[in-house]
Amino acid sequence: MKRVAVMMGSESDLPVMRKAKDVLDGLGVPCTMTIASAHRTPDRVIELVASYEADDVGVIIAGAGAAAHLAGAVAGRTVLPVIGVPLASGALQGLDALLATVQMPSGVPVATVAVDGAANAGVLAAQILAVHDTTLAERLRKRRAESAQTVLDKARELEDG
Fold first, then answer.
1. Which residue of 33, 34, 61, 92 is most buried, as measured by CB atoms within 10 A?
2. Burial class (CB in 10 A: 0-12, 13-18, 19+), 132
3. CATH number, domain at 110?
4. Of residues 41, 100, 40, 34, the one with CA closest to residue 65
5. CA nearest to 121, candidates 95, 101, 141
6. Is 158 inside a domain boundary?
7. Mean pLDDT over the full length of the chain
8. Would you say residue 56 lies in a domain?
9. What would the pLDDT profile of 57-93 be if each residue is shown by its tens digit?
10. What is the DSSP letter of 104?
11. Which domain holds residue 129?
12. Does 49 reside within a domain?
């Protein structure tokens, strides 16, 4: 099975970005995590992306706050799918990161989830890999059914008072 590479711009992003890894772990998808800054360690970003293309990585998740250039810097260096996670930080609480992540130039797309939406990034990465993995697709269906059942159980609980 292909693995997912999760990148973040700094250690302070770890509490949010760990949610992507938790989802992937729960689905049995191999995942690695690392820190690389598009601005402070651009050479490391380039080296990592090249290694991901040569390795068994199928999807890259990149999370960053403020200018949020990491996902774009990664997408500009690979044809692998890149999912950007804008992180809430600074005075704008993630709006700047959201806009920087979603406003990519034509031909260099970054799939973008909600601000601090790392869990959904994990789900989306698994869905991308599941296109060619029926076992993973079934695990995703099961996860979705369990989520629906939780909502139905809570509704019944509320209605029964």
1. 61
2. exposed
3. 3.40.50.1970
4. 100
5. 101
6. no
7. 96
8. yes
9. 999 999 999 877 899 999 999 999 999 999 998 889 9
10. P
11. 3-133
12. yes
Q: Which two tokens stand for residue 130?
A: 């599941």
Mean pLDDT of 145-155: 97
Tally of domains in the chain: 1
- How many Å apart are CA 18 and CA 52, to the nearest integer? 19
Which of 1, 5, 10, 2 lies closest to 122 in space, CA to CA? 5
Pair 110, 102: CB distance under 8 Å: yes
Indicate the SS3 state at residue 49.
helix
In a domain, 27, yes or no: yes
Q: What is the pLDDT of residue 161?
A: 81
Q: Model confidence over 13-29: pLDDT tens digits?
A: 999 999 999 999 999 99
* % of the chain residues with pLDDT over 90: 94
Q: What is the pLDDT of residues 91-101, one digit of tens each?
A: 899 999 999 99
Q: Which amino acid is at 10?
A: S
Closest CA to 58 of 18, 1, 112, 102: 1
